[in-house]
Design a protein that fits this description.
heterodimer; A: alpha/beta; Alpha-Beta Plaits; three-stranded mixed beta sheet; 15 helices; B: alpha/beta; Pectate Lyase C-like; 12 strands; globular
């Protein structure tokens, strides 16, 4: 008896020329060549579309399995299938990518302003538009000294800053969760674009050593691959406290993904689970966090900004205030739509809050306390397009981090099977034959193109807003309006409704 | 050379240490140390630091090579994520000793607090070692992924247990030796507790001799004559069965 119906049905029509390309491309084992024809095992299909992308005759169609459940607003199909899976396995349901549940998306309920008549807009094709962003702690005040000749010099000692040519950086994705080729693409694209990538918590593969000025290294609870050369081979160090896709829990990279190369990078025996405990065992309070921030500052001789990444949770504003007061130079807030290489579904889909609300509250709280300049804010977790970047910056972010969007530029089709390690696109896998499918140069070209396109769109909107630098939009909530939002959400977001 | 730490805050003190080390000084006596954090943190040379007094937390964090001797007790997070070198504490140590250490050695003459040896790692022949002469608090060797942790229980009151609760919870690599033994209910699930044979005792004698040498302890045969238990993970994948794909 088969309790769980397949999710998809694979139809192969008679235009098939039996080239078997699809059979070779399917890493999930859903296609076989038997009795002189391609046969599908529908249950194994995940709708990654690798086969359709390579079928020369468009002979393959992946459709939703046509099985109607009796309508039930309470007991949806997903819930039934989850229960059956648990009844069979007795285990937590693991999943990949980000929260896909129909929670409201506040980006889509905010609209941007534009100039008309009274204040002229700017044509970004004719006039310079500044996207440069500096990330790091800013001084309380600037002090100058005038010498006898009348020359004025800045005497304030500036904390270390990272110079970005675009307010878009790449989110932490570890070697282990993603393939080496993904990290190489991110590093090369970051260098070309003048931005930064983040190693995630899996250590720094030696192949990335050349790109250190465009890399943020992570110090997470597992401390994988963390040593002095790692801490000094980077533009900044980030303490990872939490991740939007799985706030409050750690991570388990299953032993079968811990290959020889990953074991070398993480400094653990190969084949053992790479376990990141839920908390850092040296951080049980804000004071402890301060201690680690300054341990990292000592270890890097105060030459690098130290960031802290937290998941967006209920009391995020108060937590953020503590993190900034603890000495973080960069605060990354990851919303509940953020992606993951693997997370229990119950956590991914039900824990945390939307980044839009978290960001607005954090920015407001830090301003209220007069400490907003002490740290740059990076917003992440569900940034899908240039419009989201602009709205995030208008809500108060200094920059945004993108993970899923960057992977999509490389070919990810969001089948959400990252946790299986079978990614047909060579992204979330360590199998050499699959990793090879992701061509580094091609990936760099596509990712750089996507960000360049976003940059153009951002400049277009800045021009329409009548400002000539991204800094002028930061925290400028007057340029946002809410559509279809009630008073409470407008209040939390700190914006007016459209029409006012 | 000698540095008087009296009245210096940690940043001033560490700046002086880093300065001296970068000028090639290979042994520094630090006197009047009183709670300054991060001593030896981020040092990457084989320098010897002799500390007189009580250093603050994160002693030797992220360090790669130094030999630190503390003639007194230490505070929390000693040897945090250290890569190599050695730390010898002639008194007691606080919580979270040797968190995530990758190689190198830590010897504590007295007792350690909670969460000692958590998530120690190993890679090929790089294997960290920690030897504790007294007793240990709860969560000893939690999430241990590699390395060797030896708990001797020689400096403790007769009635005291050698270690607290939740020993080796989530352990998936490495080995813990405890002199005298523990109750099964103190130890995490999925951890095997076995008597140590005489042959295996001979294998850890080297580390225990080194411990005794540091602290001038001569009764090593007495120590070795006691029964030891070995704690090791039953599986390198303790959480492998928790998930449905």
């Amino acid at each position: 008896m088969r309790m769980i119906p397949p999710e998809f049905i694979v139809k192969i029509d008679d235009t098939c020329i039996k080239c078997k390309r699809c059979v070779n491309e399917c890493s999930f084992g859903a296609l076989k060549f038997e009795n002189d024809r391609v046969v599908a095992d529908h249950e194994k299909c995940v709708a990654c579309h690798r086969c359709t992308a390579f079928c020369p005759t468009y002979a393959i169609k992946v459709e939703k399995f046509p099985m109607s459940f009796k309508d039930n607003a309470l007991w949806g199909q997903d819930i039934l299938k989850g229960l059956w899976k648990q009844a069979e396995s007795g285990a937590k349901i693991l999943t990949g990518a980000g929260n896909d549940k129909p929670y409201p998306i506040f980006w889509d309920r905010m609209v941007l302003d534009a100039c008309q008549v009274t204040n002229p807009s700017i044509d970004p094709l004719r006039e310079p538009m500044e996207l440069r962003t500096y990330i790091g702690k800013k001084p309380d005040k600037l002090e100058f000294w005038q010498d006898k000749k009348g020359d004025i010099k800045l005497t304030t000692v500036m904390e270390p800053q990272i110079k970005l040519e675009t307010p878009i950086i790449f989110a932490g994705m570890s070697y282990g969760a993603v393939s080496l080729n993904v990290q190489l693409i991110l590093a090369k694209a970051a260098r070309e674009l003048g931005t930064i990538m983040n190693t995630g918590e899996g250590g720094l593969p030696q192949e990335l050593a050349d790109y250190k000025d465009n890399i943020v290294v992570q110090c997470a609870s597992g401390r994988f691959g963390v040593d002095l050369s790692y801490l000094n081979s980077c533009a900044a160090v980030e303490i990872k406290i939490g991740q939007g896709a799985k706030p409050g829990i750690g991570g388990h990279l299953p032993g079968e993904k811990v290959t020889e190369e990953i074991s070398r990078t993480r400094r653990i025996p190969s084949g053992t689970d790479a376990i990141s405990p839920a908390p850092h065992h040296d951080i049980y309070s804000i004071e402890d966090l301060r201690q680690l921030i300054y341990a990292l500052k000592e270890a890097t001789r105060y030459k690098k900004p130290i960031g802290v990444k937290i998941a967006a949770v209920h009391n995020v504003a108060a937590i953020a205030s503590g993190v900034v007061r603890a000495g973080a130079d960069i605060l990354t807030i990851d919303g509940f739509r953020g992606g993951t290489g693997a997370s229990p579904q119950v956590i991914r889909d039900h824990v945390g809050i939307p980044i839009e609300l978290a960001l607005a509250r954090v920015d407001e709280q830090l301003r209220k306390e007069g400490i907003r300049h002490m740290a740059s804010i990076i917003a992440s977790g569900g940034i899908r397009q240039s419009a989201d970047v602009l709205k995030a910056i208008a809500l108060g972010a200094d920059a945004v981090a993108i993970g899923t969007a960057a992977l999509i530029s490389m070919g990810c089709h969001l089948c959400q099977k990252c946790h299986t390690g079978l990614c047909a696109w060579g992204i979330a896998t360590q199998k050499p034959e699959l990793v090879k499918r992701l061509k580094v140069e091609e990936g760099v070209r596509r990712l750089v193109n996507m960000i360049k396109a976003w940059n153009l769109e951002i400049k277009e909107i800045l021009g329409a807003l009548g400002v000539n630098s991204i800094e002028s939009l930061r925290g400028s909530r007057e340029r946002l309006r809410g559509v279809d939002l009630d008073e409470v959400y407008l209040d939390v977001l700190g914006i007016k409704p459209a029409g006012r | 050379m000698k540095i008087d730490a009296k009245g210096l805050n940690y940043r001033e003190l560490n700046e002086r240490i880093h300065d001296a080390v970068s000028k090639g000084v290979d042994e520094i006596d630090l006197v009047n140390v009183l709670g300054q954090r991060y001593i030896g943190t981020g040092l990457d040379r084989e320098v010897t630091l002799n500390i007189y007094g009580t250093p603050g937390s994160d002693l030797g964090a992220f360090m790669d090579g130094p030999k630190i001797n503390v003639f007194g007790s230490g505070q929390d997070d000693i040897g945090n994520t250290m890569n190599s070198g050695s730390i010898v504490i002639h008194g007691d140590a606080g919580n979270v000793v040797g968190l995530s250490m990758r190689t190198g050695k830590i010897f504590v003459k007295g007792s350690v607090g909670y969460r000692a040896g958590i998530h120690m790692k190993a890679y090929q022949d790089q294997c960290p070692v920690m030897v504790v002469g007294g007793k240990a608090g709860d969560f000893l060797g939690e999430y241990m992924a590699g390395g060797k942790l030896i708990l001797l229980g020689i400096f403790k009151k007769e009635k005291d247990q050698v270690a607290g609760r939740y020993i080796a919870t989530g352990m998936h690599g490495g080995v813990i030796y405890i002199r005298g033994g523990v109750n099964k209910n103190q130890v995490g699930r999925d951890v095997a507790v076995e008597e140590v044979t005489d042959e295996e005792k001979a294998e850890i004698r080297g580390e225990i001799e080194e411990f005794c040498r540091h602290f001038g302890i001569t009764r090593i045969d007495d120590i070795m004559a006691s029964p030891f238990v070995r704690l090791s993970p039953k599986s390198s994948r303790p959480y492998g069965k928790l998930y449905a794909y």
